[in-house]
TrEMBL record:
Molecular functions (GO terms): DNA binding; tyrosine-based site-specific recombinase activity
Pfam families in the record: Phage_int_SAM_1, Phage_integrase
Subcellular location, principal: cytoplasm
Keyword Aminoacyl-tRNA synthetase: no
Gene from which the chain derives: xerD
Keywords: Cell cycle, Cell division, Chromosome partition, Cytoplasm, DNA integration, DNA recombination, DNA-binding
Subunit structure, interactors included: Forms a cyclic heterotetrameric complex composed of two molecules of XerC and two molecules of XerD.
Coiled-coil positions: none
Protein name (record): Tyrosine recombinase XerC
Organism: Anaeromonas frigoriresistens
Length: 296
């Protein structure tokens, strides 16, 4: 099998030009499977491996405590390997055919408490153009639950402070009108009227949020911004730009918003994607019970 594995690795490296990480994963998974075959005294050669052997291997990984995602990746590696053997005419059967990957539980998103959100949003220095911009961005992310890609794509014309809404869209067929609250409106009003003109270099610039060069802020630029404020706020959680979106949804549901409305505000095509936040709330209730109940 080792010789075939080397040929397969050469194929995915030079012919398919897969990433170094993917190649390393495939190579590691195939070596691990080969070790399993040798240690299990399975006499079948690699061309005669049965579906039962693959299933038994998956069970063995499970018994060893491997995560469903790891088992799924191992199965994917074997599937790719046997597909290669089939295409090369080296075998006539694929023991991985029609095998389903183990069901993976959706990881519950990390959210901030109301107090943590408040601390984070107080970090920018609102006496400076940059701080005022950052305050407006953080307030908007939490107030509207939009993605970072949507945030940096906003133009000034997409904000209507009189109506208290923003219009977020990838195209005209996917337009979302999202309400924003009083504190967010105040932050945006100060930024747009008093500070934005100090950051832009060209009066024709349409971007709502710009960088030091007066051009549209990038995703990478915002990552650096939120990383800085997370450290400054001294919050012992991993906070990403998406954390405020998660917190937005979870807090709405905690305070009685209906699932369908939250789905529409988040722009989820399937309501099952939004339902993950109801599990977050159940986890929170369970944590509160354990901490507060004298017999918990």
């Amino acid at each position: 099998m080792e010789n075939l594995t080397e040929k397969f690795i050469d194929y995915i490296r030079w012919d398919r030009e897969l990433s170094a990480n993917t190649i390393e994963s495939y190579n590691r998974d195939l070596k691990q499977f080969n070790e399993y075959l040798n240690n299990s005294d399975i006499e079948d050669n690699i061309f005669d491996i049965s579906k039962t052997t693959i299933i038994t291997y998956m069970i063995d990984l499970q018994k060893k405590g491997r995560a469903p995602s790891t088992i799924s990746r191992n199965l994917a590696s074997l599937r790719a390997f046997y597909q290669y053997l089939l295409n090369e005419g080296l075998t006539r059967k694929d023991p991985t055919a029609n095998l389903k990957s183990p069901k993976q539980e959706k990881k519950l998103p990390s959210i901030l408490s109301l107090e943590e959100v408040d601390i984070l949003l107080k970090q920018p220095d609102i006496l400076t153009p940059k701080g005022t911009r950052d305050k407006a961005m953080l307030e908007l992310l939490y107030a509207a639950g939009i993605r970072v890609s949507e945030l940096i794509s906003l133009n000034v014309e997409d904000v209507n402070l009189d109506l208290g809404i923003i219009v977020s869209s990838k195209d005209y067929s996917n337009e979302r009108v999202i309400p924003i609250g009083k504190l967010c409106i105040e932050s945006l009003d100060i930024y747009i009227k008093l500070m934005r003109h100090k950051l832009i270099k060209n009066t024709e610039e349409k971007s709502l949020f710009v960088n030091y060069h007066g051009r549209r802020l990038t995703r990478q630029g915002f990552w650096k911004i939120i990383k800085t404020y997370t450290k400054k706020a001294n919050i012992d959680k991993k906070i990403t730009p998406h954390t405020l979106r998660h917190s937005f949804a979870a807090h709405l549901l905690q305070n009685g918003a209906d699932l369908k409305s939250v789905q529409e505000m988040l722009g989820h095509a399937d309501i099952s994607t939004t339902q993950i936040y109801t599990k977050v709330n159940k986890r929170r209730i369970n944590d509160v019970y354990k901490k507060a109940h004298p017999r918990a």
